[in-house]
Amino acid sequence: MGELVQNNNSWTTTLPSTLPAGEYMLRHELLAIHTSNIPQFYPECAQLVLTGGGSSAPSGDFLVKFPGEYSM
After folding, report:
1. pLDDT of 68 higher than 90
2. Cα dihedral across residues 13, 19, 22, 25: positive or negative
3. Percentages helix, strand, coil for the chain, rounded to the nearest 5?
4. Which of 41, 60, 48 lies closest to 21 in space, CA to CA?
5. CA–CA distances in Å: residue 21 to residues 2, 5, 56, 58
6. pLDDT at 20
7. Res 49: pLDDT
8. Any idea what the Cα angle at residue 7 is, between residues 28 and 40, rounded to 5°?
9. What mean pLDDT is predicted for residues 24-47?
């Protein structure tokens, strides 16, 4: 059984306290194999407004710009 199901269908993550204040979009995906080993992807996003005084920006590997990051 999957870890998500074992955790009552919830997931917790901790954002680094060093992130500077600002607007962020957090994206994650769930991958499920329900039937015939055909994977189904469930992408989700959350828009966050962080307050505080961190000063270490994420590296460019983790940053994208909208519009433009995704296309059909």
Report:
1. no
2. negative
3. 10, 35, 55
4. 48
5. 34, 33, 10, 12
6. 87
7. 93
8. 40
9. 84
